[in-house]
């Protein structure tokens, strides 16, 4: 099966960030990426448009670099708190998701984070202290600490 070029509309784990031009298997593009709106088929005109958007995004990122560093420092110095129901044995009902962590970080820092910016190192199903990797922008990531508290 031949490969096919697509332009990513959003970040796809293991593939790239929004605006990246990647080559994937034709079936992967046809059956998953394009129908879900994660990518659009590559064309010369679309590539020119994406390059212009990428150039504008890079200029904006340079201007916001100091702010991104400040957000990173704030994330690494703050500890978020997540309370979930737990059973008698201390095990949580359900698991902590990146969306819950993003919401807790918003509460702790005041900055908005999308669930796709938060990566957990493993499944969080018990109370305790954990660390999540938060992508502040394309070049800056922060290790955010959070506590999971089980409540009856």
UniProtKB/TrEMBL annotation:
Residues 16-43 form the Ribosomal protein L9 domain. Gene3D superfamilies: Ribosomal protein L9, C-terminal domain (3.10.430.100), Ribosomal protein L9, N-terminal domain (3.40.5.10). InterPro entries: Ribosomal_bL9, Ribosomal_bL9/RNase_H1_N, Ribosomal_bL9_bac/chp, Ribosomal_bL9_C, Ribosomal_bL9_C_sf, Ribosomal_bL9_N, Ribosomal_bL9_N_sf. One of its GO terms (cellular component) is ribosome. Keywords: Ribonucleoprotein, Ribosomal protein, RNA-binding, rRNA-binding. The keyword DNA damage does not apply. Binds to the 23S rRNA. Belongs to the bacterial ribosomal protein bL9 family. PANTHER family: 50S RIBOSOMAL PROTEIN L9. This is Large ribosomal subunit protein bL9. The lineage of its organism: Bacteria, Bacillati, Actinomycetota, Actinomycetes, Micrococcales.
């Amino acid at each position: 099966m031949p490969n096919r070029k697509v332009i990513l509309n959003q970040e796809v784990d293991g593939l790239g960030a929004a605006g990246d031009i990647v080559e994937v298997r034709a079936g992967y593009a046809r059956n998953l990426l394009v129908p879900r709106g994660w990518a659009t088929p590559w064309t010369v005109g679309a590539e020119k448009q994406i390059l212009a958007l990428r150039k504008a995004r890079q200029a904006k990122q340079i201007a916001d670099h100091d702010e991104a560093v400040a957000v990173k420092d704030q994330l690494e110095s703050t500890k978020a708190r997540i309370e979930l129901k737990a059973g008698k044995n201390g095990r949580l009902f359900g698991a902590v998701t990146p969306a819950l962590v993003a919401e807790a970080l918003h509460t702790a820092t005041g900055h908005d984070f999308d669930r796709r910016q938060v990566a957990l190192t493993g499944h969080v199903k018990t109370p305790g202290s954990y660390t999540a990797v938060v992508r502040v922008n394309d070049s800056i990531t922060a290790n955010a600490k959070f506590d999971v508290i089980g409540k009856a």
